[in-house]
């Protein structure tokens, strides 16, 4: 039986590719995709999610809207990276046919987790607002989730919004704090420390034989790759969110270690910074599996196998 999955996204360019991987892997029973404000507004993230599901004809996957703002702060959109539409201008003229389900994402999370106790994997690739709201409303869900994997934070390198903060934890640090201290027994952080090594290049795109998917990914990442070239001199772009989905498919592509991790929420300079207690200075119980190394070659082999329809299945590398 396929593993049950809920994806929570702020569909931007990399979230969209993460959705493609999850669907095309055919490895999950995707109970639903919940949306949140982040890269773009909640409405735009929801529209983009529906467009991606239309692209792969996944009309059977419910889309449920969540929080339109962070818990306490104002939204902080990232149009500079993701474009005005959030998909780098791809699928601009496409009409949307995928419906948006009734309900509110935190309630959908609670109901799904309690209905399938111990079976649901949560993959979060945007700010953690919806999960924080679900935990506040129903704290016991932490005992019924199979595992949580979230793309967010950075523990050794520099941030990508401020010198210390990564975008998802910067947008809603209060939500991240609630999630970090909720008591999830198995929660894995996929931060910039590893996602920056998951760089999609033209060579990867040339290996994708599904023309529709190859053309979509090339179009949506074109500006993203150019921005990366302008900063680093290489035409590439980091597959932040797809790596989080990849880890849900095969935990072996990263090396993790469990530490006590907290997040800054009251600092002029460092709000949103994940603070990892590598030396156990605070003598607190480890609460987070931190991803420290990634086998980027294994990830991209799986990435291409999935998009070409050759994926052998969860936990299996070709
Ligand atoms: O820092 C990268 C993360 O922020 C990704 O999830 C990207 O989509 C943005 O949400
Ligand atoms: Ca995202």
Give a structural overview.
The chain starts with a strand and ends in an 11-residue tail after the last helix. The strands form 3 sheets. The protein has an 8-stranded mixed beta sheet with strand order 3-2-1-4-5-6-12-9, with helices on both faces. Helices cover 37% and strands 18% of the residues. The protein has one domain (3-317): Inosine-uridine Nucleoside N-ribohydrolase, Chain A. Helix 1 runs parallel beside helix 11, helix 4 (105-115) crosses helix 5 (129-137) and helix 5 (129-137) crosses helix 7 (173-180). It has helices at 13-25, 42-55, 79-82, 105-115, 129-137, 167-171, 173-180, 192-195, 202-206, 211-232, 240-249, 296-307; strands spanning 3-9, 28-35, 63-65, 120-124, 145-151, 187-190, 199-200, 237-238, 254-259, 261-263, 274-276, 288-294.
Give the total of domains: 1
CATH architecture label name: Alpha-Beta Complex
Alpha plus pi helix count = 12
> What is the subunit arrangement here?
single chain
Number of strands: 12
Give the terminus-to-terminus CA distance: 21 Å
Bound molecules: alpha-D-ribofuranose, calcium ion
Fraction in beta strands: 15-25%
Percentage of helical residues?
25-40%
Uncertain runs: none
């Amino acid at each position: 039986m396929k593993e049950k999955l809920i994806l929570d996204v702020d569909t931007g360019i990399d979230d969209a590719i993460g959705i493609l991987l999850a669907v095309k892997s055919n490895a999950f029973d995707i109970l639903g995709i919940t949306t949140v404000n982040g890269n773009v507004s909640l409405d735009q993230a929801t529209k983009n999610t529906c467009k991606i599901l239309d692209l792969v004809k996944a009309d059977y996957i419910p889309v449920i809207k969540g929080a339109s703002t962070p818990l306490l702060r104002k939204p902080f959109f990232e149009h500079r990276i993701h474009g005005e539409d959030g998909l780098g201008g791809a699928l601009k003229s496409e009409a949307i046919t995928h419906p948006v389900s009734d309900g509110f994402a935190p309630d959908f999370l609670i109901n799904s987790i309690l209905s399938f106790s111990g079976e649901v994997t949560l993959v979060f690739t945007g700010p953690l607002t919806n999960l924080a709201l679900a935990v506040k409303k129903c704290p016991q869900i932490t005992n019924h989730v199979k595992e949580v994997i979230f793309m967010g934070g950075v523990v050794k390198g520099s941030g990508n919004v401020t010198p210390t903060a990564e975008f998802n934890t910067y947008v809603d640090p209060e939500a991240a704090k609630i999630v970090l201290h909720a008591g999830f027994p198995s929660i894995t952080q996929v931060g910039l420390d590893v996602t920056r090594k998951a760089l999609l290049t033209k060579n990867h795109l040339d290996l994708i034989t599904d023309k529709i998917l190859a053309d979509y990914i090339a179009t949506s990442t074109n500006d993203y790759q150019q921005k990366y070239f302008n900063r680093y001199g290489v035409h590439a772009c980091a597959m932040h969110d797809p790596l989080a989905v990849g880890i849900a498919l095969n935990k072996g592509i990263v090396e993790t270690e469990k530490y006590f991790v907290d997040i800054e929420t009251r600092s002029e300079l460092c709000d949103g910074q994940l603070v990892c207690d590598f030396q156990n200075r605070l003598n607190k119980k480890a609460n987070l599996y931190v991803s420290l190394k990634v086998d980027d070659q294994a990830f991209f082999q799986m990435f291409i196998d999935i998009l070409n329809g050759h994926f052998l299945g969860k936990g299996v590398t070709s």
